Amino acid sequence: MAWTEVYNWQLGRNMAYPHEGAWPEWQFVFVFNINRCIACQTCTMACKSTWTFSKGQEYMWWNNVETKPYGGYPQFWDYKTLELLERVNPGGQVWDARPQIKGQERPYGVYEGMTLFEGAKKWYGESGHKRVLGYLPYDEEWRFPNIYEDTAATTAEGKPGQWYGEDAASELPEHQTWFFYLQRLCNHCTYPACLAACPRNAIYKRPEDGVVLIDQERCRGYRKCVEACPYKKPMYRATTRVSEKCIACYPRLEGHDPHITPTGAPIETRCMTACVGKIRMQGFVRVDTQTGRWIEDRYNPLYYLIRVAKVALPLYPQFGTEPNGYYIPPRWAPRPYLRQMFGPGVDEAIEKYVAPDRELLAVLQLFRAAQHIIYRYEIKEGPKVYETVHPVTGKKWEMYNDTVIGYDRDGREIIRQTVEEPKYVRPKVHYNSI
Predict the structure, then answer these.
(1) Residues forming beta bridges with residue 65, ordered by sequence position
(2) Contacts for 147 with CB less than 8 Å, ≥ 6 apart
(3) Is residue 10 part of a domain?
């Protein structure tokens, strides 16, 4: 493998990567709205019961929901990876987020620190035995998929662990006592660390949709993918001595379930369709196969949320993998913690989310509105139904009962949703009818 320079738009610059750049025609992408999640774990169990129910898969949770800031599966996955970056580049993980340097190709500014690939290149050298900074979790760190659920942190000064009392009151815009749920699966990264680290070339991205898969015929269970992935989503199966990971339910993406999609149109993954809180949206964005840039697709709901409205942000972009999972950050958590997790776009994203404009409010209604993947949306304007002075921004805010329409890959209408939830009055059938 030879080191090359590839462009990472999330970092706003070129970066070193130990492979040639190769980009799919379409890229699998998802957006999760953290503000809506109730941690019911329905998504987790939908994945578990579909893909990881066999012997040797007991500790495999390809989809999980963990409570931040203390939870994690495996434990400490983010803390340990951030620590590795700090060790190789002390104090250097900073962003230049000045407005004058931002643009479509660097929406969050420029990351001036080191990625996991660049850290490995510095630490081990260009011909070193490791191409990615990483670590193998201890067995104990895989034991508890939902450890520290609902365990709160506090920002009450001088009173760590203080959960109650006036000095730890929970009021917006930031709660002093806080936690939030983080939903995780494989990010199907543009520059996968697992792929870069595999000595067997057993990991690859599908050219048609960018889904990252492990060829289990080639895999020999060296666990380099487990060590390298900063999100710890490849998992080793001791009974077969190979690694396994989320496959993005690709038979569903291909439309190969005639019972659900008789037309052959792509449908969402199991974890997406099971979501009770309607926090999830998943689909594809078009990619320039020569440069890796996203092709402008203004009315693709994912493109709109990520590149136009900029309310959905990547998870730990400083790792350098250019993850294709994006999150609308929680509006009540401390901003420094959120900036570390999602980058410098947090303040703008939360400001737009708490007082959504007319288009954003309509697009938010598409989350989990249909099993079919939405490729394009259209908004039909409706009447104004509400007006107020927003309690957070202090500015005038108006709500319109617009109708948002979603279309599938072939241009068929699959969902029509109003901003206001429709009300139905059931006819009276007998005297005690409610």
Answers:
(1) 183
(2) 66, 70, 71, 72, 73, 75
(3) no
d(CA 368, CA 402): 18
pTM score above 0.90: yes
Beta strands in 191-316 (DSSP E): 203-205, 212-214, 235-237, 242-244, 280-286, 313-314
Residue 161, burial from CB neighbour count under 10 angstroms (0-12, 13-18, 19+) = exposed
How many independent structural domains does the chain possess? 1
- Specify if 387 maps to a domain: no
CA distance 39 to 37: 6
CATH number of the domain enclosing 175: 3.30.70.20
Q: Does 153 map to a domain?
A: yes
Question: pLDDT 10s per residue in the chain (434 long)?
Answer: 689 999 999 999 999 999 988 999 999 999 999 999 999 999 999 999 999 999 999 999 999 999 999 999 999 999 999 999 999 999 999 999 999 899 889 999 999 999 999 999 999 988 888 999 999 999 999 999 999 999 999 875 544 444 444 455 567 777 888 999 999 999 999 999 999 999 999 999 999 999 999 999 999 999 999 999 999 999 999 999 999 999 999 999 999 878 888 888 999 999 999 999 999 999 999 999 999 999 999 999 999 999 999 999 999 999 999 999 999 999 999 999 999 999 999 999 999 999 999 999 999 999 999 999 999 999 999 999 999 998 888 899 999 999 999 999 999 999 999 999 888 887 777 666 55
Q: How many residues does the chain have?
A: 434
429: how many CB neighbours lie within 10 A of its CB?
A: 7
Using DSSP's 3-state secondary structure scheme, residue 91 falls into: coil
For 338, what's the count of Cα atoms within 13 Å in the CB-facing half-sphere? Answer: 24
Strand-strand pairing, 325-328 and 26-33:
parallel
Q: Which amino acid is at 163?
A: W
- Decide: residue 186, CB within 10 A, 0-12 exposed, 13-18 middle, 19+ buried: buried
**CB proximity list for 219: less than 8 A, separation 6 or greater:** 198, 200, 202, 242, 243
H-assigned helices in 367-427: none
Question: How many CB atoms neighbour CB 210 within 10 A?
Answer: 23
Domain membership flag for residue 202: yes
Q: Which residues make Cβ contacts (< 8 Å) with residue 270, sequence separation at least 6?
A: 46, 47, 50, 51, 249, 252
Q: Where are the alpha helices (DSSP H) in 169-214?
A: 193-197
DSSP helix/strand/coil, 412: coil
